[in-house]
Design brief:
Chain B: This is Copper-binding protein. The complex is a heterodimer of chains A (150) and B (423). Chain A has four helices and seven strands, in the order H-E-E-H-E-E-E-E-H-E-H. Chain A has 150 residues and is of the alpha+beta class. The radius of gyration of chain A is 19 Å and the shape is elongated. Chain B has two domains: 135 residues, no CATH class; 185 residues. About 4% of the residues of chain B have low confidence. The chains are: A alpha+beta (150), B alpha/beta (423). The interface between A and B is medium-sized, with 14 and 21 residues.
């Protein structure tokens, strides 16, 4: 009987070990969090991004442009998960699944003009108020000419 | 008792009196180009709009306020507008100016506001001698003292700003002079983004998160400022990110977590500054070879400099912890000063290590570094460290009046003493 219980515990431990590690976003603390790339403190939470590294560390960004800069420099090999704030709801969402809209006149903390949303309805609602923008998927951010545009 | 109550009520009502008979908006609407409007003392509620070239003057005690979220004063699509001597209180923005040419805002006091003065798409703007005080909430929950966007030829001078997000925020502005302002207890004293042709002279930045934050800006002169007591977890005296062509000269960086930090910057000249009592005086990452740190004075800092493997070019600086000699007598040390510190390099990568600064183990490590790194010749090395500081020499001079008084007192004392001993 004792042998069976030991076997069960061992199997349980092995199964937990084999399970996929979950990477959850954490809340921003404006007092202490600064952008990993540009050093600006995070005061406009609705534009913030974060990367959860596989070792459990968090890298915080004030703007999707800085997050993309980090990925460009470091690659995504150590990235467990990446999140960006939904401008419409201020909720975290997966960077890779978000819908982006770009217009050089949209204000963002680094003035890159790219804003993230979860649904097309939210994008449309935003564009009705703030002006038309160019819809982008994550893979298009990789080749976007980041920076302010005259 | 009744008389006492009436006495106090009298003062209560007289202090709240507003000159309701003077309609500011009506006066503005009726004014012709170039007219001056003098607003009598009193409290005026409303959201006022100026769209023509006029001058608005308040008297002592003239106050405009708004109880909604709209700006108290909007100035737009006009030239030659001048606003002077007002007090403004607002829930949200105090003054908003849009597409203006020749605007002067002078001696305006803005209190308990979310955003003080907001200017956009304008030219020839002068913001002078204003006093802006934000509320007591966290800096993440409030706006900027003075914010200027997409404008040209802006002068921001002699303003006093406290308790806001960024004291002075400048974005996409060409030619801006920020002079003799004082910003305290805010996030950034002054924050530049994407600007060109910037002068920052004779300002005082005190107890903010960071004194001066410069990002993606070119062609700067930062001179004769006092930048002190920025010592929070992420604080800097001056932080330059992605900045090109800057002269940082004759400033005082005192009691900051990091005096000056350069990141991804090029052609930066840091000359004749005073770095005193900072945790780290100088920090550099990705700084190009054309940037130099020359003829500065480093005294009482825990760590003089730290950098990534690109290093920083140190030349002819004075270091109080330099132990070399000047046998040649040319005023420069005979052996190079090496600022490399293993612990300093670790702090660049992990700022949280700052909590171990000056701990016994770090002190031993730094001492070992100084012995071992004497062979270092490339990174954070000043091959000609200055031995004399830039302190002024005082000539020996005699004050004849004081000398005579001193002699008389001494002689009298001696005489009294001798007289005392005879008796």
């Amino acid at each position: 009987m004792t042998r069976w219980i030991t076997m069960l515990i061992l199997c349980g431990v092995i199964l937990v070990g084999c399970g996929e590690k979950a990477y959850h976003p954490r809340e921003i603390n404006s007092e202490t969090d600064v952008c990993k790339v540009c050093n600006m403190s995070i005061v406009h939470n609705e534009y913030a991004g974060q990367i959860v590294l596989k070792n459990g560390d968090y890298e915080i960004f004030d703007d999707i442009g800085c997050l993309m800069d980090y990925l460009k420099l470091n690659g995504d090999g150590e990235v467990g998960a990446a999140y960006i704030k939904n401008k419409a709801t201020n909720q975290w969402m997966d960077v890779y699944k978000a819908i982006y809209v770009y217009n050089k006149n949209y204000w963002t903390p680094m003035n890159y003009g790219v804003i993230a949303f979860a649904t097309k309805d939210e994008v449309q609602h935003w564009m009705n108020d703030e002006g038309e923008g160019q819809l982008l998927a994550y893979h298009e951010l990789l080749t976007l000419n980041w920076g302010i545009h005259e | 008792m009744k008389q006492i109550v009436l006495f106090f009520l009298f003062f209560l009502f007289t202090s709240q009196t507003a000159y309701a008979e003077f309609d500011i908006q009506f006066a503005i609407d009726q004014a012709k180009a170039g007219d001056s409007i003098h607003i009598p003392a009193g409290r005026y509620q409303g959201n006022f709009i100026v769209k023509k070239p006029i001058k608005l003057y308040g008297q002592k005690g003239t106050e405009l306020y708004a109880q909604n979220d709209e700006p108290v004063l909007k100035i737009e699509h006009a030239t030659n507008v001048s606003i002077e001597n007002l007090r403004i209180t607002a829930k949200n923005k105090g003054i908003v100016a849009n597409e203006m040419v020749n605007l002067e805002l002078r001696a305006i006091e803005l209190k308990d506001i979310q955003v003080g003065i907001h200017i956009q798409r304008s030219r020839h703007i002068r913001i002078l001698e204003n006093k802006i005080i934000g509320n007591y909430s966290h800096f993440a929950e409030k706006g900027n003292g003075i914010a200027v966007f997409k404008s040209e030829d802006v002068a921001i001078e002699h303003n006093t700003i406290k308790q806001v997000q960024d004291g002075i925020y400048v974005e996409e502005v060409k030619r801006v002079d920020v002079q003799r302002n004082k910003v305290t207890n805010s996030r950034y004293g002054t924050h530049f983004m994407y600007s060109n042709g910037v002068k920052v002279l004779f300002n005082t930045y005190l107890q903010n998160v960071t004194g001066l934050m410069v990002m993606m800006t070119t062609n700067l002169e930062i001179s004769s400022n006092t930048i002190s007591t920025h010592n929070g977890f992420n604080s800097y005296g001056l932080m330059m990110y992605d900045t090109q062509e800057a002269m940082v000269r004759k400033n005082s960086f005192l009691h900051n977590r990091v005096g000056v930090a350069l990141q991804k910057s090029s052609v930066i000249q840091i000359q004749e500054n005073r770095f005193q009592m900072n945790q780290t005086a100088l920090e550099g990452t990705k700084v190009d070879e054309r940037s130099t740190i020359m003829e500065n004075q480093f005294t009482g800092n825990i760590l003089t400099a730290r950098s990534d493997n690109q290093g920083l070019r140190l030349m002819h600086n004075f270091y109080d912890d330099y132990t070399g000699l000047d046998v040649a007598g040319d005023g420069f040390g005979d052996v190079p000063y090496v600022a490399v510190s293993s612990f300093g390099q670790w702090m660049v990568r992990q700022p949280v290590y700052q909590f171990f600064v000056a701990s016994p183990s770090v002190v031993i490590l730094t001492s070992l570094d100084q012995q071992i790194n004497n062979t270092e010749r490339n990174l954070l090395v000043d091959s000609e460290p200055k031995l004399m500081s830039n302190m002024k020499k005082t000539e020996l001079s005699l004050n004849s009046k004081q000398l005579v008084i001193g002699l008389v007192v001494t002689i009298c004392s001696l005489w009294l003493w001798r007289r005392g001993t005879r008796v």
